[in-house]
Amino acid sequence: MADPKGFLNHGREVAETRPAGERVRDWNEVYVPGSLLPIISKQASRCMDCGIPFCHNGCPLGNLIPEWNDYAYREDWSAAQERLHATNNFPEFTGRLCPAPCESACVLGINQPAVTIKNVEVSIIDQAWDRGDVAPQAPERLSGKTVAVIGSGPAGLAAAQQLTRAGHTVAVYERADRIGGLLRYGIPEFKMEKRHINRRIEQMRAEGTKFRTEIEIGRDIDAAKLRKRYDAVVIAAGATVSRDLPVPGRELNGIHFAMEYLPLANKVQEGDYVAPPLTAEGKHVVVIGGGDTGADCVGTAHRQGAASVTQLEIMPRPGEDRNANQPWPTFPMLYKVTSAHEEGGERVYSVSTTHFEGDEDGNVQFLHLVEVEFKDGKLEQKPGTERKIPAQLVTLAMGFTGTDQENGLVSQFGLELDARGNIARDADFQTNVPGVYVAGDAGRGQSLIVWAIAEGRSAARGVDSFLTGASDLPAPIRPTDRALTA
């Protein structure tokens, strides 16, 4: 363990963020560079030799958190990164983007602020890159088997890296023009600079993974033909169908899905545009949806110079402390202030959009809403609470409903779906079509990055067993596993 008295001697400290007024003028990550290293040893020392580390239960990857906390406390960065990489292909992604269910399950969190596990994780991997400890791990011999991975998000990349290292020849197919999936075009630059993706891609290329961009399976290549070309296929296409809002006025100009809005801002940072074709500059912006994607829209609108930003959420505002029905070590629904919220804007809870109002040219100008409340388990409108707010750009960030079926991927493979509309799979992540596997949101439904990586690693074991008859690859989760809840 780390310092036996660490949790008694040191309080919780987190990464320092740059002043809001400064960071909204650029697209760099919001944290002060280098602010973690001076404090991270003491923070890692707060890991308390709890006997049963429930942080393992909170993390689907089974991260060896007490072990790398101890190494970080001792500043043995090489050993720390080895333990970190033992269970996680891309800790620089999860260390920046994961909401840290491990911290919600931290034993210290029962009566004190939890260990800053996420900050320790990102410190370890950043040190590993800076020290040159992250190197390609090419296989010693090739199996002669070929695998196609459809989708280059965290699930697809994790599956591809595991299978490449097992000796198979892997090609990743991505319909966008760059590798990364939602990591590339759904996550704003201020949350994770894309250089972190780029260097992982270079590592994977050096290991032998092939990448094919701007190819959509189902449209550009028939899925059935792809299956004949490869010995196995992993579908990691995500749950990319956005939830819509079918109310009067939805057809007006200026109302867009979040995933129509966010990628264009990222393409500016990639150098594809001087200015985004869709911008919040000078506009009254309304973001519908109170989750992380909504917060990404808020932060993006701030940086584009919006006149105002309002975020709407149909549910009541969560509390700042755990409810009795969300006890430790479950992941609680708490009021969360992200870096984007620190930068300004208004958050409105318990409201529902009734309709949009536009001008004579068909452009949205106002959003009409009404307050709502739960009665007898049902959501009901409160009479007399109707009002309208200015809205010249509206982004719909209400989540996703499943994988894309319009491109023909599901029908051409002949895949079966489960009751929720996700691609069905067995205990080995194999679909009803032999040799075709599914990992990530396409099989699980919308979930967290840490679950996507865990799914990719687990599906890789299933594929490896299918191709060779046995596998030494780890499988941290089963398809039926779910987050720790009450």
State the shape.
Answer: globular
Helix percentage range = 25-40%
Radius of gyration equals 23 Å
Low-confidence stretches: none
Strand content: 15-25%
Structural class: alpha/beta
Q: Could you report the average pLDDT, rounded to the nearest whole number? A: 96
Number of helices: 19
Amino-to-carboxy terminus distance: 29 Å
Within the largest sheet, what's the order of strands? 3-2-1-4-16
| Number of separate strands | 16
User: What profile does the largest beta sheet have?
Assistant: 5 strands, parallel
Features:
32% helix, Glutamate_Synthase, single chain, five-stranded parallel beta sheet, amino-acid biosynthesis, globular, 486 residues, metal ion binding, iron, 4Fe-4S, alpha/beta
Provide a descriptive summary of the structure in words.
The chain has helices at 6-9, 20-23, 37-44, 55-58, 65-73, 77-85, 91-97, 101-104, 117-131, 154-165, 182-185, 195-207, 223-229, 258-269, 292-303, 339-342, 409-413, 441-444, 449-468, and strands at residues 146-150, 169-174, 210-213, 232-235, 241-242, 255-257, 284-288, 308-313, 346-349, 351-358, 364-375, 378-381, 387-390, 393-396, 400-402, 436-438. It is of the alpha/beta class and 486 residues long. It has a 5-stranded parallel sheet, with helices on one face. A 5-stranded parallel sheet has the order 6-14-7-8-9. It starts with 5 loop residues before the first helix and ends in an 18-residue tail after the last helix. The model has no long low-confidence stretch (mean pLDDT 96). It comes from Streptomyces boluensis. Its EC number is 1.4.1.13. Pathway: Amino-acid biosynthesis; L-glutamate biosynthesis via GLT pathway; L-glutamate from 2-oxoglutarate and L-glutamine (NADP(+) route): step 1/1. GO terms for molecular function: 4 iron, 4 sulfur cluster binding; glutamate synthase (NADPH) activity; metal ion binding; oxidoreductase activity, acting on the CH-NH2 group of donors, NAD or NADP as acceptor.
